[in-house]
Design brief:
There is one protein chain. By secondary structure, this protein is an alpha/beta fold. The chain has a single domain, classed as Lumazine/riboflavin synthase (Rossmann fold, 3-Layer(aba) Sandwich), CATH 3.40.50. The chain contains 5 helices and 4 strands. The radius of gyration is 15 Å and the shape is globular. The mean pLDDT is 94. The chain binds riboflavin. Homopentamer.
Length: 162
């Protein structure tokens, strides 16, 4: 039995009135596509309407915090929750460490600056194999698709803590 993951959902949430933003980086696009699709299908399973899911992109994960800020403040102030999605895979230089840490802190802080929920849709993986498994792609080692968790977390945060 899996121990990790969101666990049992704690209430029956009706997402039919919610507006949700998804901003995804374009690096590691195959993995991103699976995560975004998993996220969208989970949102829909809570009743979020297709027309109320706004998908936008940015170049890479480093750009996610600023893109999220401007999305909320300028492009779509009507949304209830934003899910920034990125996939960082460790390479041979220090980029991974700097981007992972700074983006994580920036997203955390942004919630308090904007007073809005922001979901942590960032995979920080040591190998491509780890990232594929966490997007539910790698059949052999497949875990569940983490994008689904982010969709469920968004609905709960938007409705319970509105
Ligand atoms: N962006 C990602 O979203 N995932 C990555 O794994 C990733 N790796 C990078 C590795 C290097 C060496 C560089 C220079 C950039 C990388 N980026 C990655 C892009 C980064 O988040 C950003 O979009 C660019 O640096 C432009 O600001």
């Amino acid at each position: 039995m899996a121990v990790k993951g969101l666990g049992q959902i704690d209430a029956k949430y009706d997402g039919s009135k919610l507006k949700v933003g998804i901003i995804h980086a374009r690096w590691n696009d195959k993995i991103i596509a699976a995560l975004v699709n998993g996220c969208i299908s989970k949102l829909k399973s809570f009743g979020v309407l297709e027309e109320n899911i706004i998908v936008e992109t940015c170049p890479g994960s480093f750009e996610l915090p600023y893109a999220t800020k401007r999305f909320y403040e300028h492009l779509h102030p009507e949304v209830d929750v934003v899910i920034p999605i990125g996939v960082l895979i460790k390479g041979s230089t220090m980029h991974f460490e700097y981007i992972s840490e700074s983006v994580t802190h920036a997203i955390m802080n942004l919630q308090f600056q904007l007073n809005k929920p922001i979901i942590f849709g960032l995979l920080t993986c040591l190998t491509e194999e780890q990232a594929l498994a966490r997007a539910g792609i790698d059949e052999a080692k497949s875990m569940h698709n983490h994008g689904e968790d982010w969709g469920a977390a968004a609905v709960e945060m938007a409705l319970k803590y509105e």
